[in-house]
Fold these 3 entries.
Entry 1:
Amino acid sequence: MERGHAGSRQLIDLDATRDLGQELAALVEEGDILLLVGELGSGKTSFTQGLAKGLGISESVTSPTFALCNVLGRSRVLHHYDLYRLKNTHELVEIGFEESLEANVVVVVEWPLPALDLLFGEVLLVRMCHTEQGRFAEWHWQGAESLCAEDLQP
């Protein structure tokens, strides 16, 4: 895999989902933003577990659904957001999301729609879904200015 290229993969189980996250970690640099789009149970947190492992983060990765953000790592830092419960950009600003975007850390955002108006630069959009054959993921780099709400819907 090369940075900037798109890809897709069938994910036969959660281990394959974690493996994809670990592989994509090799393409990620501090300051990068990853947007994870997919319905409930599509593997977004499992992907983030693999990503964290690939970044050298040994801490346990759990869904930040109620905490809204988990900060993980020491030498490489990951801010893992889950915006499922947020309704608008104002709520996101109140929890310090903009500071994460300006820090030199990797930012992963599950359910990223409330963040749309705050994003900038190039983002890695990872779309995950269920198919008849199991889970499926596709990813590509995209300029945040060209994102629209439809891009961020599961």
Note: Strands lie at 7-11, 33-37, 69-72, 78-82, 106-110, 122-131, 134-143.
Entry 2:
Amino acid sequence: MKNAILILIIAVFFSATDTLAQNQSKPANSAKKGYVPLIISDEAKTSLGISSEIIALNNSAVAEAIQGNHQSAIASFRKVISRSPHLAQAHFNLGITLTYAKQMEEAVRVLKNLIKIKPDYALAHAALGEVLYKNGLLDESIYSFRQALKLDPNDVVIMVHLGASLFEVKNYEEALDLFEKALKLKPDFVSAVNNRGVVFQILGKHKQAIADFRRAIALDPNYSEARNNLGVSLNQTGKKKEAHQEFLEAVRLRPDWNYAIYNLAVSFIELGDRKSAREQLNALNKIDESLGAKVKELLWQKYVINAADFDGN
């Protein structure tokens, strides 16, 4: 069997991408979703010059958005903006909710318009960077995150997002620098710990990578990305049985996560457990046929002489 490429995960907040040798993407867990719509406090009413009715409408729309009622929230945010066109928070909220609703082109338009209204709004630049990142527009994403970081140099979330974008264009050294800066400001920032580990792994610094992934798990035992990544690093250093346990745990935490299922299937193949590998292949085919095809090929290479005789079952 040829060497399989295990998938390594760099975490951002509502998107995440990376691998050891190819780019993939997948959602991070809800605790790491990142930017959410903004609630406007009653105390802000005077400084913003808006009515209590507008504040209440915005805040009820925020609740709708967080609950996943995106279209209702979008309609309410548009109503707020029609009554208070210069209310930056409402434009921001609309852009973020459009993103969650997967209306990406409109989200970009709204956030770019917000930046015209308020060029020094760091959060708007950062949110635009996320949408561009999610759509694979990495150069534009990097530009937006750089603008955001200029406006708010100590924002660790922006640092991690910019670092993730730079990672995607293989600017590993600057990405590493940003993750380390974020950790100096917030040592327990689990996504920065995980992401630094990913860069260490890419750079062949396996000992440092494993230490970071273990630290991320200590900070958040349910952090499936770090479990998966620790499995990759352990596998790469020959500790295949220990790696296998981490892949099992990653799948337990996220049973429908295609990348963890793929890694677990590969691990079963490497350990010679054909039956369990087939079970993971069946699960994987239901959610990601392209990764399933890779597992099927690996199974064939190890166990089957005639490919025409192999149906993957």
Note: The chain has a mean pLDDT of 87.
Entry 3:
Amino acid sequence: MTWVAVGCLTLDGVLLGLAGYWGRRSGLVLGGLICLVLALGTVYLWRRHQRTLDELRRARREVADEARALRELVRRPPSV
């Protein structure tokens, strides 16, 4: 879904920029530039989101490993 949004924003930006350039209308060129900046921002934020999800997955694995180790420690009979 993210890539569809980026593709649409990029296409809109390029087409608006070209229409503004050919029609000598600076407002359309500005709109095209804004769309391109938004497309880049979307990619940046999506990558940041993916990194955060990876960190959460790693932290969950670490917590699960610690819980497993504690469970084994509790279940082990006391050595006297």
Note: The chain has a mean pLDDT of 94.
